[in-house]
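Private note to self, pasted from the team thread so I don't lose it. Backbone tokens:
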């Protein structure tokens, strides 16, 4: 079984992420989309469990896609789940430096693990979860940014966060 893991913060999942998920799912027997903690972005908008729920909703019906959550090293998660491939999306050259470093580190931690990079569709090259949150704070239309099933969740969550500040 060719199993791959697509790790990320997914706070929240964007149309760019979904594009990578669909393309990667077509390449492997099973793709585990894994909500992981990025220590440089410790406090997110959504809790890890909420991100999992949003991801489950938008990937429902995609054959071979499973969503999970892990707060340890991704390399350990891969070893436990007998996966030898990590999938990462690359938007621009600026992503490359940190991603290649992470890929090498992950192979050092688990020598059987390789990282496959999928370039982002040019349609979504400007898109990130940070951009989504910023647009939502200003009440912009999110329909070109996140899957339609989660637009309301993002709007409500941002509104709630604004009310608390
Ligand atoms: O969507 P992001 O924020 O670019 O994802 C980064 C993420 C979560 C994949 C990365 O920070 C990660 O792998 N974190 C888990 C901890 C880990 O394995 N660290 C070692 C690699 S730097």
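Design output:
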């Amino acid at each position: 079984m060719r199993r791959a893991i697509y790790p990320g913060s997914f706070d929240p999942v964007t149309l760019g992420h979904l594009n990578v998920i669909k393309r990667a799912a077509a390449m492997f027997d099973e793709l585990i989309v894994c909500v992981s903690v990025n220590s440089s972005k410790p406090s997110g908008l959504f809790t890890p469990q909420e991100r999992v729920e949003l991801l489950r909703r938008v990937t429902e019906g995609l054959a071979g896609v499973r969503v999970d959550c892990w707060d340890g090293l991704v390399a350990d998660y891969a070893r436990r789940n007998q996966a030898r491939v990590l999938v990462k999306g690359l938007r621009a050259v600026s992503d490359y430096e940190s991603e290649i470093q992470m890929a090498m580190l992950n192979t050092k931690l688990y020598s059987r693990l390789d990282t496959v990079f999928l370039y982002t569709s040019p349609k979504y090259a400007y898109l990130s979860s940070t951009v989504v949150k910023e647009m939502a704070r200003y009440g912009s239309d999110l329909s070109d940014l996140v899957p339609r099933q989660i637009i309301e969740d993002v709007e409500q969550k941002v509104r709630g966060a604004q009310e608390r500040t």
